[in-house]
Amino acid sequence: MGKTLFGKVLVIFVAVLVVCFSVTAVLLGIGLKNMSADQKAEQLLIVGEKTEQALDYFLRQMNGFTDAKLFTNYLESLAENSGSAIWVARTDGYIIFYCNTPASVLNNLEENSQGWYILPEEWEYPPSGYGFNYESGDFYGLFRDTGEEWVTVSRPFSISGIPPFGLTAEGVILVHSKLPTMQNTKYSIPRIFVISGGIGSLVAFLLVFILTRRLVRPLTEMRLAARSIAAGDFSKRIAIRGEDEIAELSRSFNFMVDALENLENTRREFLSNISHELRTPMTTIKGFIDGILDGVIPPENQNTYLSIVRDEVRRMEKLVNDILDLARLQAGDSKLNMTVFDINETVRRCVISLQQMFIRKNLEFTAEFETERLFVRADADAIQRVLLNLLHNAVKFTPEGGNIIVRTSSNHDTVQVEVEDNGPGIPKDELPHVFERFYKADKSRGLDKTGVGLGLAIVRNIILSHHETIRAESEEGRGAKFIFTLRKADAPEKYMLE
């Protein structure tokens, strides 16, 4: 049981209860013992005061044996009524009066040749000062044979002016009393705590059972769901109950399963798409090469078909390079060469490199720059690739005679670049997926015959590697707009001198 969560919580819970009950029992026992001893000492103090008063009267009125006998009878009556043993001792330790003392105690006292009991030498009486002192126990072992605990009150006295010579009598009055109630309490307190501890442990067991069942249920569900996920079944989800940490863990687990399911779907789609993109040119290449080798294609047409084969090989090469570039960007292996450059000038160069494509489709290009020069801090080659991809994408989907616009503007420490076309646009439900690998909004591939759906994924990862943002806006039938941001920079010194 100790290996399970329920067993561990139960053991800890019961251990805490046992420790708490044990400490409380010990402290309560000590407290009750001290309280009982204090109360008994107060009672014995009154007995000591009455003994001193009687002793004072006896010494001042002493008249032979009769008065001594009366004093002894009074002490015996007082001791009997108070349930105590009374000793009157001189300063040299000799006990001159005693009454109601157990025989076992008298046997522990020293006795001289005259039959006087004397206290051991190490206890000198009276104690220094006046007042009273008390202690509990066996009074230095004298009461050890009684088998009970005793409280002893010591009250020093000094009676002066004793007639007929004005003598002074000094000594100490010792009043002893056993405490049978304390002995009972010693055993009753643990018994009470054992019973209450047992009841508390039973209640703890029920509470721990309810608590751990609530804790373990979602964990068990997660364990079973994890096994299903490992087997390829992503349909399992954890029921969320409440708003505590377990509910948050369940919510996070479900989110993780969703992410894993999306990742698995993306992986399968990736493999499917890349297989398709590679199979098509490979089939074309194989067919043309077989036709040349078999003589089906006449020699005068071979150069034409070899040119097609070369184009297909270039297409496959571009696909592989794009996949490798995307993998490096996603893994963070691609290091950026951060420099300060004019983003407007980069736009101009990109448009010039695609000039033939613009001319072929009779497209109109418009540049809307906020200022003549606008400097950013970024990797110039990477951003040029972003612009080329976005412009190439715009040219591809803009109809003949259409218009493409590039805008640059600044806002505080950020530069915003927009590439807009007036093509067919992107459907609303497909807009969130345009930056995914191998995704094509044109499912029929009627418009996009050359792309493989990696361009926008590469664009997105380049911008994210700069810790900037990129988004797409579009209305179906009214064109599309791609917007990304870059970090604004001050003009380099060579431009400041112009």
Protein described:
With 498 residues, the protein is an alpha+beta fold. It has three domains: 5-187, Beta-Lactamase, CATH 3.30.450.20; 245-331, Signal transduction histidine kinase, dimerisation/phosphotransfer (DHp) domain (Helix Hairpins, Orthogonal Bundle); 338-496, Heat Shock Protein 90. Helices cover 53% and strands 18% of the residues. It is built from eleven helices and 14 strands. Strands 8, 9, 10, 11, 12, 13 and 14 form a seven-stranded mixed beta sheet that branches. A hairpin with a 4-residue loop joins strand 1 and strand 2. Helix 7 (343-353) crosses helix 9. The two termini are 82 Å apart. Mean pLDDT is 80; it is low at 124-130 and 442-450.
Secondary structure elements and their pairing?
Blueprint: H1 5-61, H2 65-82, E1 85-90, E2 95-99, H3 103-108, E3 110-111, E4 117-118, E5 133-137, E6 150-162, E7 167-178, H4 180-230, H5 245-294, H6 299-331, E8 338-342, H7 343-353, H8 355-360, E9 364-369, E10 375-379, H9 380-397, E11 403-411, E12 414-421, H10 455-465, E13 470-474, E14 480-488, H11 493-496
Parallel strand pairs: 9-11
Antiparallel strand pairs: 1-2, 1-7, 3-4, 5-6, 6-7, 8-10, 10-14, 11-12, 12-14, 13-14
Helix pairs in contact: 1-2, 1-4, 4-5, 5-6, 6-10, 7-9, 9-10
EC number: 2.7.13.3
Keywords: ATP-binding, Cell membrane, Kinase, Membrane, Nucleotide-binding, Phosphoprotein, Transferase, Transmembrane, Transmembrane helix, Two-component regulatory system
Subcellular location: Cell membrane
